[in-house]
Amino acid sequence: MFSVPSLRIACLNRAGLNPPRLLRNRLPVPNAPTGNSSCVSTCCHKKKGTWHGNINFRGLGKERGLFYCNNAVFSLRSCSTTEVKLNCWKCKQLLVETPPFFCNSCQTIQPPEERTSYFKIMDCDYTFTLDTQKLQTRYLQLQRSLHPDNFSQKSVKELEYSESQSALVNKAYKTLLKPLSRGLYMLELEGMHLDEGTDSEADPDFLLELMEINEALAEAQTPEEANRIGQDTKGKLADLIVQIDAALHKGELHAARTLLTKMKYYANIEEKVKEKLSEFM
């Protein structure tokens, strides 16, 4: 039971920042709202100025004032319990798709929803081991329809929206494409960040291993020697992907952050191997 005196909560429907959570301790809500319409009254009710119900609130990262209540996002700033919906800026018809790129009624391009998660934009499962082929297919489809060249004869507003939508899709695609940036983004959605300069927190044995690898790469005299280091690094990265996926699946965020720190260093070595190989060409 959750009770806060004189608390009013408005459901921010379509905020888009509500991927399936990693933590497992959330209680289901009977008849929870889905799709574009949602209302706080589904999971709690007001009685004498107090909200009651089986609510599992959880802070939403850096988005102050936003909280998760099961599968919806709520704001503690608003004083309204009115259902929030989005309408086309041009014809005013209700937008059906989530997120809405175009209006179903007049086919006009819509402004981007900046707070929508990249997973939702790219129509991908909220998982570390997502389908990159599906991701690429979705990217190409969106860019074909959203590219600014398609709106050169449209209004200035539509051209601006296409540029913003295209840029957002590019950013979402690049972030989710590689395991390291994808994992860091998932931690960011959980309110956790990988700080710069994490050497002081790293395991001394791991740092020694990195030093030896870098020295061996610097002393490599042939492409074969550099390739061996590269293949060994790829194997370590593959093992880390399995471990990170398991940690995120269990909701072990601190463990995932530690593993992502290691991945960052190995990814850096992988880039150095490519540079070394280019020297032999």
Report how far the terminal alpha carbons are from each other: 67 Å
Mean pLDDT: 77
Secondary structure class reads alpha+beta
Q: Helicity, in percent?
A: 40-55%
Counting DSSP H or I runs of 4 or more residues, the number of helices is 7
- Note the overall shape: elongated
- Roughly how many Å is the radius of gyration? 23 Å
Order of helices and strands: EEEEEEHHHHHHH
The fraction of residues assigned to DSSP E strands is 5-15%
- The CATH topology of one domain comes to Helix Hairpins
The CATH homologous superfamily name of one domain equals DnaJ domain
Outline of the structure:
With 281 residues, this protein is of the alpha+beta class. Helices cover 44% and strands 7% of the residues.
Overview of the molecule:
The protein is of the alpha+beta class and 281 residues long. Among the domains are: 91 residues, Helix Hairpins (Orthogonal Bundle), CATH 1.10.287.110; 76 residues, Monooxygenase. Helix content is 44%, strand content 7%. Homodimer. Interacts with ISCU (cytoplasmic form); this interaction stabilizes the (Fe-S) clusters on ISCU. Interacts with the CIA complex member CIAO1 (via LYR motif). One of its GO terms (molecular function) is metal ion binding. Belongs to the HscB family.
